[in-house]
């Protein structure tokens, strides 16, 4: 389970695309932190040419051009729902996940199965 507030900034050393991006109805986390995974991400986003672009062909180049790449990625991710992105990347080998808000987290099957809920009583 991922909660957005802890994932806003990505990792400045490992890679640009290891962070949460806005979808049309929520957030999705991608783990495209190496050249192979970035190529999978770019293809899934419908932008396979990004992987061959000199600005994005290597991790160090992606870090150098972080601002433009992250904007472009989010411009694309905002065009579909989180579930649509989950379906697109299913089976591709790219690490990805829906980012849960507080309600999603409390209703997640792992939280329910571990009996993490408590009822508070007040006056």
TrEMBL record:
Keywords: Transferase. One of its GO terms (molecular function) is succinate-hydroxymethylglutarate CoA-transferase activity. One of its GO terms (cellular component) is mitochondrion. The keyword Metal-binding does not apply. PANTHER family: SUCCINATE--HYDROXYMETHYLGLUTARATE COA-TRANSFERASE. This is Succinate--hydroxymethylglutarate CoA-transferase like protein.
């Amino acid at each position: 389970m991922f909660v957005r507030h802890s994932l806003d900034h990505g990792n400045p050393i490992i890679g640009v695309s290891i962070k949460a991006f806005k979808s049309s109805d929520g957030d999705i986390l991608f783990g495209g932190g190496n050249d192979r995974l970035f190529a999978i991400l770019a293809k899934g986003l419908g932008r396979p040419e990004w992987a061959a672009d000199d600005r994005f062909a290597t991790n160090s180049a992606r870090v150098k051009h972080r601002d433009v790449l992250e904007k472009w990625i989010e411009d694309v991710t905002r065009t579909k729902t989180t579930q649509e992105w989950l379906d697109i990347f299913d089976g591709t080998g790219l690490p990805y996940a829906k980012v849960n808000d507080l309600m999603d987290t409390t209703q997640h099957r792992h939280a329910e199965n571990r009996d993490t809920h408590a009822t508070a009583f007040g006056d």
